[in-house]
Amino acid sequence: AQSVTQLDSQVPVFEEAPVELRCNYSSSVSVYLFWYVQYPNQGLQLLLKYLSGSTLVKGINGFEAEFNKSQTSFHLRKPSVHISDTAEYFCAVSDIIPRGSTLGRLYFGRGTQLTVWP
Amino acid sequence: NAGVTQTPKFRVLKTGQSMTLLCAQDMNHEYMYWYRQDPGMGLRLIHYSVGEGTTAKGEVPDGYNVSRLKKQNFLLGLESAAPSQTSVYFCASSPSLVTPRGYEQYFGPGTRLTVT
Q: For residues B5 and B94, what is the distance between their CA atoms, to the nearest angstrom?
């Protein structure tokens, strides 16, 4: 089974500073990768995803992430954060399963709390 | 198009009581999931369903049962609640695994359950 490691449980930054939230996964098989964001007292919202193609993917709210297969990483970045980006961010990974199989599922990291200070 | 909805939003139970959480989706998705979220633990899969009438265990299934009698609904039951089941419960759905986009899961707003 996959394991997903989010290396920082809390990341405090000042407004307009750049930020990187790190995510590593364990499996070397082909994967799909996701970042979800959870604002206080809300459900999870998809921020961006890597399914195929360019390893640099862009998502909503100015976030982007880079898939690095050799390092099994999918780090999330934003060049200039806003106070409204304060939220918890979850990295999730799914093994690509053979067609017709029904065993695919998402594995989540433990989350990174991003706090943006004025 | 409401997406994924969950009822109730909040619930307080006494130890030993039972309850059912309801998840509904209007996107005609094949797959549905129940997760629990605890501080510092991320989301852990309780049970999931790959289609109407089917269910399967996730990584933390003990103490929970599920049913998927209709494609759009996925019910999570607690037969005898315990304080360890105090958590936030999320339901999610996804189209299927036939295409890459089918792996993307759509989440409900959550149910906050407290067991005293």
A: 14
User: Radius of gyration over alpha carbons of chain B, in Å?
Assistant: 14
Distance between CA atoms of residues B110 and B23, nearest Å = 10
As a whole number, the mean pLDDT across chain A is 90
CA distance B20 to B57: 17
Is the Cβ of B53 closer than 8 Å to some Cβ of chain A? no
Nearest CA distance, B42 vs chain A (angstrom): 4
- Greater pLDDT, B5 or A1: B5
* Mean of the per-residue pLDDT values of chain B: 93
Q: Phi, psi at residue B100, to the nearest 5°? A: -55, -40
Residue A102 scores a pLDDT above 60 = no
Q: What is the DSSP letter of B22?
A: E
CB contact under 8 A, A102 and B97: yes
Residue type, A82: H
How many CA within 13 A on the CB side of residue B50? 12
- What are A38-63's pLDDT values in tens digits? 998 888 999 999 988 889 999 999 99
CA distances to A113, B11, B25 from B20, in Å: 31, 10, 17
Asked if the Cβ–Cβ distance from B107 to A105 is below 8 Å, we say: no
What residues pair up with A27 in beta bridges, in sequence order?
none
> Helix or strand or coil: residue A4?
strand
- What pLDDT shows up at residue A52? 85
Instruction: Please tell me the predicted confidence (pLDDT) of residue A15.
Output: 97
